């Protein structure tokens, strides 16, 4: 049977009165010098082997970032919000009534995506650049239609 010795005594017991407890001259166990620098210091120098083993992708560029001008930004509005605004839009002339349905272009209102939140209580014809399936379904169930305009 393997015998295991139990360390019953703490190291500090043997250092009573030593003042430095095995850490050398005063101050050697303080500050960041003892751990190789602050933060990510030494990753190209004395911690390079750590980087190679545990974080090989740490340095360098990864992937491709499209120019912000080419990335489409969508500003959405829920169909429920449009339904609430219809009377106000008709009064201001931003929407018009055709055959008992209200027709409006949300791009002119500053939005380019139709989202499916909320309820639609009347038939609407909404012109937009993009729309979610849920939004299209809700508008069509209320007797309206969603017209997807060309362009991004």
3D structure, described in words:
- This protein has helices at residues 11-14, 48-54, 79-92, 133-141; strands spanning 76-78, 95-98, 101-105, 113-115, 124-128, 130-131, 145-148.
- It has 152 residues and is of the alpha/beta class.
- Among the domains are: 35-64, no CATH class; 76-148, Ribosomal Protein L15, Chain: K, domain 2, CATH 3.100.10.10.
- The strands form two sheets. Strands 2-3-5-7 form a four-stranded mixed beta sheet, covered by helices on one side. Strands 1-4-6 form a three-stranded parallel beta sheet.
Main attributes of the structure:
4 helices, alpha/beta, Ribosomal Protein L15, Chain: K, domain 2, 7 strands, 3-stranded parallel sheet
The CATH class designation of one domain is Alpha Beta
Number of helices: 4
Helix-and-strand structural type: alpha/beta
CATH topology descriptor of one domain: Ribosomal Protein L15, Chain: K, domain 2
CATH-scheme architecture of one domain = Ribosomal Protein L15, Chain: K, domain 2
The amount of beta strand, in percent, is 15-25%
């Amino acid at each position: 049977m393997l015998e295991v010795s139990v360390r019953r005594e703490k190291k500090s017991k043997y250092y009573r009165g030593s003042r430095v407890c095995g850490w050398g001259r005063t101050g050697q166990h303080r500050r960041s010098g003892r751990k190789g620098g602050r933060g990510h210091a030494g990753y190209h120098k004395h911690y390079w082997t750590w980087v190679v083993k545990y974080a090989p992708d740490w340095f360098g560029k990864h992937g491709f970032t499209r120019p912000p001008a080419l990335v489409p930004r969508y500003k959405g509005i829920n169909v429920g919000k449009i339904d609430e605004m219809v009377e106000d839009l008709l009064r201001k002339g931003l929407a018009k009534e055709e055959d008992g349905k209200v027709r409006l272009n949300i791009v002119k209102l500053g939005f380019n995506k139709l989202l499916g939140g909320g309820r639609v209580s009347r038939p609407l014809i909404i012109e937009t650049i993009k729309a979610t399936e849920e939004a299209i379904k809700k508008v069509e169930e209320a007797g309206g239609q969603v017209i997807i305009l060309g362009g991004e």
